[in-house]
Design brief:
Blueprint (H helix, E strand, L loop, with lengths): L2 H11 L49 H25 L9 H6 L6 H19 L10 H11 L2 H14 L4 E8 L4 E7 L14 E8 L6 H4 L3 H10 L3 H9 L1
Antiparallel strand pairs: 1-2, 1-3
Helix pairs in contact: 1-9, 2-4, 5-6, 6-8
Bound molecules: manganese (III) ion.
Manganese (III) ion binds next to helix 2.
C-alpha cells in the first residue's frame, strides 16, 4: 500500500487514521537517534487506531466482537509480529509490512502468521469504515459486472468463497498479476500478497475474515448470515482506493 492510498483512506475515514500501519515505525538504521550508551530502537509495527467506535458497525458486527477482535486478536498479532522481528534480529531497513509479506521465506512461520494477521486485520477495519459508497461505482462497478456477469454475480461468488473456506481463513477480491479481478480465499492469515499461496500473487481489494472469532458471539455457527451482514457494510470508496494503490 502506497502513501497516497493511506491519505485517501484517512480522508474517507472522517475520524482520521493517524498513522500508516503498513509502514514500520521506529528504525534501526542510520536515522535512529544516537544517544550515548543506548542501542538503536528496534524496528517495530503499530496497530493503527480503529477510527470509529466499537458500536459503529452494529447490528452487523456487535460491539463486543469488535472490542475483542480489535483489542485482543489483532493486537496479539502485532505483539507477536514484533516479537518475531526482534527474534530475527529486526526488520531490514525501512521495509514495509507489504514488502515483508512479499518476501517471506518458507521457514518464516511466525512472520507469516502474525505479519499476515496484522495486515489482514488492518485491511478489514479500513474496509468497514463507516461512510463512503455503499455499492461499487464507476470503473470498478463496470469491471465487476464484466468479470462476474453482474454485481449479484460478484456478490454470490465472493460470499460462496467466504462460506466454503474450510476452517479459518479469508476470502478476497483481488487484482491478480495479469490485471484481472479474481475472487479467491486463503487459509489461516495468508493473503494474496504472499508468494506460493495462490496461482498468482496480487493486490487485495476486499477481504473478509471468516475465522470464527470474527462472528461467533453474534452469529454462532451461521457464517452465511455474518457474510451477508458484512456485504452490507463494505465501504466501496476504500475498495476502489485499494485498487489504485
Ligand atoms: Mn480475525
Amino acid at each position: 500500500m502506497k502513501k497516497r492510498t493511506f491519505i485517501k483512506l484517512a480522508g474517507t475515514a472522517g475520524a482520521g487514521i493517524l498513522i500508516a500501519p503498513f509502514a514500520s515505525c521506529g528504525t534501526n538504521t542510520a536515522d535512529a537517534p544516537k544517544v550515548k550508551g543506548s542501542r538503536p530502537r528496534p524496528f517495530l509495527f503499530e496497530q493503527e487506531p480503529l477510527g470509529y467506535d466499537f458500536s459503529a458497525l452494529a447490528p452487523a458486527i456487535d460491539p463486543v466482537t469488535m472490542e475483542i477482535h480489535y483489542g485482543k486478536h489483532h493486537a496479539g498479532y502485532v505483539t507477536k509480529l514484533n516479537r518475531a522481528l526482534l527474534a530475527a534480529g529486526g526488520a531490514k531497513g525501512n521495509q514495509t509490512l507489504v514488502e515483508l509479506l512479499q518476501t517471506l521465506k518458507p521457514e518464516d512461520t511466525a512472520l507469516r502468521n502474525n505479519g499476515g494477521g496484522h495486515y489482514n486485520h488492518t485491511f478489514y477495519w479500513r474496509t468497514l469504515t463507516p461512510g463512503g459508497a455503499i455499492a461499487p461505482e464507476g470503473d470498478l462497478k463496470k469491471e465487476l459486472m464484466d468479470t462476474f456477469g453482474s454485481l449479484d454475480g460478484f456478490q454470490t461468488e465472493f460470499a460462496t468463497a467466504a462460506a466454503t473456506r474450510f476452517g479459518s481463513g479469508w476470502a478476497w477480491l483481488m487484482r491478480d498479476a495479469s490485471g484481472a479481478l479474481r475472487v479467491t480465499s486463503t487459509p489461516n492469515q495468508d493473503n494474496p500478497l504472499m508468494a506460493g499461496v495462490l496461482e498468482s500473487t496480487g493486490t487485495p481489494l476486499l477481504g473478509i475474515d471468516v475465522w470464527e472469532h470474527a462472528y461467533y458471539l453474534n452469529y454462532q455457527n451461521d457464517r452465511k448470515a455474518y457474510i451477508a451482514a458484512f456485504m452490507e457494510r463494505i465501504n466501496w470508496d476504500v475498495v476502489a482506493a485499494n485498487d489504485r494503490a
